[in-house]
Amino acid sequence: MTIRVVSRCVPTHSPVAAGLVAVVVVAIAGLGGCKQAKEAAKKWAASDGAADAEGGAGAPAVDDDAPTAPPPRPDGPGLEPGTYRLVELRVDVAPTKRGGRAWDIGDGVEADPDPKAVLTLDGHQVATCHAADSTTLRCAPGREVVIEPSSRFALEVWDQDVLSDDKVGTAVLEEPQRWGVGLELPMAPTGQVRAASLRLAPVQTWWATHQVRLLGLAGGVGAAQLVSGPFRGRVVERDRYRSPPPRCGH
Q1: What's 98's DSSP letter?
Q2: Residue 64: Cβ within 10 Å count
Q3: Neighbours of 151 (CB within 10 A)
Q4: Domain annotation for the chain: domains and CATH numbers
């Protein structure tokens, strides 16, 4: 009789679900009937679905340190192997440590981090930037760097403290030559580094630096020649037909 009540009152969607709630449903059905059994089954299903949404014991763990992929490469000419100038470095840090703890606490007051970023290119340090009490870091290193087909930028970010620095996170940029000059090259961040990017510019050669002045000077000389040409022709023409001075009669 009890088994018939269970099969009639509770629509089991799977053998596992029926097995887990059989004892509870049998007891409720025997005491209060189908209505109470159905309500108990609905509550169990709702709680089980919420647990699955939040991630149960079998749910895969989320790796917070896994790098996030940068945006797709924009349309552009790319970077030819050669020398470029590192004109800008941008870093955004999470407002708190992992778990919601404050970066710095002084006199009982929570404060923003003091980020320090160290940028390397192919293992060689090319820039170091600092900021105080800020979750954003902006600097203009201005250093010349050599980009090769296999070049790799790597960034380490720390929160500077009095006793010991806290590791904030890292960021990397593979194959920078796939991008272009003047563009914001995004890096793939990890840890509490929310975003990081850098910007490159072509190195100014001697001609690129002075070509405007030289072209302006040449244009000025040419304009002067055009303006003075007719007057100079008249002077030459008048001197050609001028009578020679009288000879001395001695």
Answers
A1: T
A2: 10
A3: 17
A4: 2-53 (no CATH), 82-202 (2.60.40.150)
CA-CA-CA-CA dihedral for 59, 61, 62, 65, to nearest 10: -170
- The per-residue pLDDT for 200 is 93
* Residue 3 token pair: 């088994």
Which DSSP helix (H) or strand (E) runs through 209?
A: helix 206-240
- Which H or E run includes 115? strand 115-121
Report the C-alpha gap between 152 and 124 in whole angstroms: 10
What is the full DSSP assignment across 41-67? Answer: HHHHHHHHHHHHHH--TTSPPP-TTSP
Quick one: average pLDDT of 222-245?
Answer: 65
Side chain identity at residue 211, one-letter code: Q
Q: Higher pLDDT residue, 227 or 50?
A: 227
* Helices 2-9 and 34-54: angle between axes, nearest 10 degrees: 60
Summarize the confidence of residues 104-126 as an average pLDDT. 85
Residue 191 near residue 172 (C-beta atoms within 8 A): no
Token pair for residue 2? 């009890």
